[in-house]
TrEMBL record:
This is Biopolymer transport protein ExbD. The lineage of its organism: Bacteria, Pseudomonadati, Planctomycetota, Planctomycetia, Pirellulales. It comes from the Bacteria. It is found in: Cell membrane. Belongs to the ExbD/TolR family. It comes from Rubripirellula obstinata. It is a single-pass membrane protein; Single-pass type II membrane protein.
Length: 140
């Protein structure tokens, strides 16, 4: 005895509207939560080279300290003295005491003294997670 199977018309007309809505919601979510170019990294600084350099990934609460070729210190693109830098770091540590990070970007032509001075300010203010950035050299 032959059995006839009736095909439903509901399965053949699948609505794509909810799927498109979900795709647009995901697109908006990723656009809102993504980070764009930081204003702090707009100074034209040529970094020194190192063979073991890794690409820098931005952390959510890091402070970027730039040091140009003449030893001037910039935080957020603004020129700061060491006492002003100390005030900025003290405020940042007060708001984020456990995981405040500082990234020191120094021009390769500057002397090492301004870098050491910034490291000293980091130590005095309680920032233990600081790093000096480099770019990958020709031998790496």
């Amino acid at each position: 005895m032959a059995i006839k199977i009736k095909r439903s018309s509901v399965a053949s007309t699948l609505s794509l509207t909810p799927l498109i809505d979900v795709v647009f919601l995901l697109l908006i979510f990723f656009l809102v939560t993504s980070e764009f170019e930081d204003e702090e990294r707009r100074l034209d600084i040529v970094l020194p080279t190192a063979t073991s350099a890794m690409p820098m990934t931005s952390k959510p609460r890091e402070i970027v300290v730039d040091i140009d070729a003449s030893g001037n210190i910039y935080v957020g693109g603004k020129l700061k003295a060491l006492t002003e830098l100390q005030s900025v770091l003290e405020l940042a540590v007060a708001e984020n005491p456990t995981s405040q990070t500082v990234v020191i970007r120094s021009d390769h032509r500057t002397s090492f003294q301004p870098v050491v001075s910034v490291m000293d300010v980091c130590n005095r203010t309680g920032v233990s997670d600081y790093s000096v950035t480099t770019q990958e050299g020709p031998n790496g």
